[in-house]
Specification:
Length: 495
């Protein structure tokens, strides 16, 4: 087996089938240098030589644009012959009309949860874990690729829940054949903590965040071993299998200013080092390593060896500065809207009230995890109030919309009231509804950190907002089809 590691969650695996033919599968498709949903940059930056790229299938794990990238897909399907089959999870099958329109004459296979698809005598299986809570990654499908002797499994952008059924499911996956080697590719995503580091207002605050994170992360890693001695005595641990291996890959999306690379919470080699020490403590002796972007790895006899640079890369830029939390570099806080335009107030108000009543209200009334009833009961005026600022930072006015136990829907609150639960610029909410922003766009403009932003979070719950996702991907597939690139879209926001 060989792995061409492209960084983030993207890698190309080469695996032999029973006829000794090599099957090549690309996991996820973000090979652009920016991600358009939060206008952040990819590090390292890469350039693909499509004349040397051969792929039999492309697997798309979910609907985030650092995994599903129209700009990359259009280039691949314009440059590679024969065209690779597109494998997509059933959770994003609503996007099939866009794939059919912008990737014409393309074979698409919709993947059903926990079923196996055979591609040229290679088994491909997918697992979507059931969560008890709503996240912005509800639609993530994890991936397992195997022949009769080898298995590679990637959790992509999720963590298998701490439940007996999930532990048993993975164990069954890793033992359903007589494997000689099986790799668990663990994707580390420290993005939320990196955001906290970058948004810190002092060096002392950064160090405190890093200390808290390291303590939490070490507890998480240790529990991954300790749980089999106390909480899951009846479960078997895949890490005790004689053919088990583990590799770490890192998701790394950062501020376009490369200096912010120095403000990272934890490097991937440090993650692997911590894992090795804790594994040794629990007498686990399986191979553990981190993968380096731009490298091709050969996996044979449970040894992971770097053999060469990826042959289908034209170039790769790998800035890898030492972490320096004492760097006098602080991100400017912007409390104004991302698009500081003066817009049609009535049209915006209609969209926002519609969204509050048809998206947010049903979502919150049915959400037992973060109950709207309790938010109303604990509010000073026993109402749930959303404040909206219309127009721009130079000239704006405010409107409050409330819901309480006497209401059937959100209504405008008459008179002047200062108590509110959330506050937004109308421009930002409209941008969210029209695909131009998303959950992490507030990295570029601050929300009030003293408030709980339930509306903002609701709008990025994928299963509630397929219409928004469809609009977003429709626009970017269209741009990609007329040879526009992601840079020209993002640069308007990152100047």
């Amino acid at each position: 087996m060989r792995i061409h590691f492209l960084w983030h969650s993207e890698f190309l695996v080469e695996i032999k089938n029973s006829k000794n033919e090599t099957v090549k599968i690309l996991s996820d498709s973000w090979l652009s240098n920016y991600v358009f949903w939060d206008m952040m940059a990819r590090y390292p930056k890469i350039e693909i030589d499509y004349e040397k790229l051969e792929i039999d299938a492309i697997f798309i794990s979910h609907s985030h644009s650092d995994h599903l990238d129209p700009y990359t897909l259009v280039k691949i399907y314009e440059n590679i012959k024969p065209r690779p089959i597109l494998l997509i999870p059933e959770t994003i099958s609503f996007l099939v009309p866009l794939f059919e329109k912008y990737l014409p004459k393309q074979k698409i296979q919709i993947l059903k949860n926990s079923q196996t698809f055979n591609l040229n005598w290679i088994d491909i299986k997918w697992i979507i874990f059931e969560n008890d809570y709503i996240t912005n990654e509800d639609d993530v499908m994890t991936l397992a690729i195997s022949n009769d002797e080898e298995l590679i499994y990637t959790d992509v952008d999720t963590v298998p829940p701490e439940r007996q059924d999930c532990i048993n499911l993975l164990y069954d996956l890793f033992t359903h054949k007589n494997f000689s080697q099986a790799i668990y590719m663990s994707t580390r995503n420290e993005l939320p903590w990196n955001f906290q580091i970058i948004e810190s207002n002092s060096i002392e605050e950064r160090k405190k965040i890093q200390k808290e994170y390291l303590e939490q992360r070490m507890q998480e890693i240790e529990y991954n071993y300790f749980r089999f001695e106390e909480d899951f005595l009846e479960c078997s641990d895949i890490q005790e299998l004689p053919y088990f291996m583990k590799v770490f890959v890192g998701q790394w999306i950062v501020h376009p200013n490369p200096d912010f690379l120095k403000l990272r919470i934890l490097k991937l080699d440090e993650e692997a080092k911590i894992e090795k020490s804790i594994a040794k403590k629990y007498s686990r002796n399986f191979p553990i390593t981190e993968l380096i972007p731009g490298k091709t790895y050969n996996i044979e006899n449970r040894k992971i060896e770097t053999i060469w640079d990826i042959p289908f890369l034209k170039s790769i830029q790998i800035p890898n500065p030492e972490t320096n939390l004492e760097l006098e570099l602080f991100k400017e806080d912007k409390f104004w809207p991302l698009e500081n335009r003066k817009w049609n107030y009535k049209a915006q108000e209609w969209k926002i009230i519609q969204m509050l009543n048809t998206k947010f209200l049903p979502y919150r009334l049915a959400n037992t995890e973060d109950n709207l009833k309790n938010a109303i009961l604990n509010s000073k005026n026993h109402k749930y109030v959303v404040k909206i600022r219309y127009w721009n930072i130079e000239e704006y006015f405010e409107r409050n919309y409330f819901f309480d136990f006497s209401s059937f829907e959100f209504c405008e609150e008459k008179g002047k009231h200062e108590d509110y639960n959330e506050d937004y610029w109308a421009n930002d909410l409209e941008d969210f509804l029209e695909w131009r922003q998303e959950l992490y766009s507030n990295f570029r403009h601050k929300l009030n950190e003293k408030k709980t932003y339930r509306v903002w979070t609701c709008l990025w719950a994928n299963f509630l907002n397929n219409d928004i996702l469809y609009k977003k991907y429709s626009l970017h597939f269209k741009r990609a089809s007329i040879w526009k690139d992601v840079e020209s879209f993002v640069e308007n926001y990152i100047k």
